[in-house]
Structure formats: structure tokens, C-alpha cells
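User: Hi! I'm working on a homework problem where we have to compare a predicted structure to a textbook description. Could you give me the structure for the chain below?
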Amino acid sequence: MLTAIGIGIGIAAMVAVLGISESSRAGLLAQLDKLGTNLLTASPGRTVFGDNATLPLTAPANQP
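Assistant: Happy to help. Predicted C-alpha cells:
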């Protein structure tokens, strides 16, 4: 009986954690959609070792 209760609690905890992360993801995507796509830009920075990083060749060019 205790094993069944433990399994039930474990499954409920996993469902809760997955639901919270999916809800947070949906909220973030909705906020980014509301702000628009022209506010987010990516640019190369530095690697872990301090070298100049590069963006992949498939990255879109900077457009005004």
C-alpha cells in the first residue's frame, strides 16, 4: 500500500513539474510575441576561453 502511494506521489510530482515548466515557456513565448520580433537581436560575443565567437552561417543578417 505504501509503495502504491509513493508511486502515485512521484507521478503527481513529475506531472506538476512538467506542467509548471511548460506554463513558464508558454508565458515567455507569449511575452516575446507581444513585444515583437524587432526587439531581439543576437550578436557574437566571447567564448569560454576569451576568444571572439562567431554566429553560424545560417544565422540571418542584421536587418534594420
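For your comparison, note the following. DSSP finds one helix and no strands in the chain. The mean pLDDT is 84. Good luck with the assignment!
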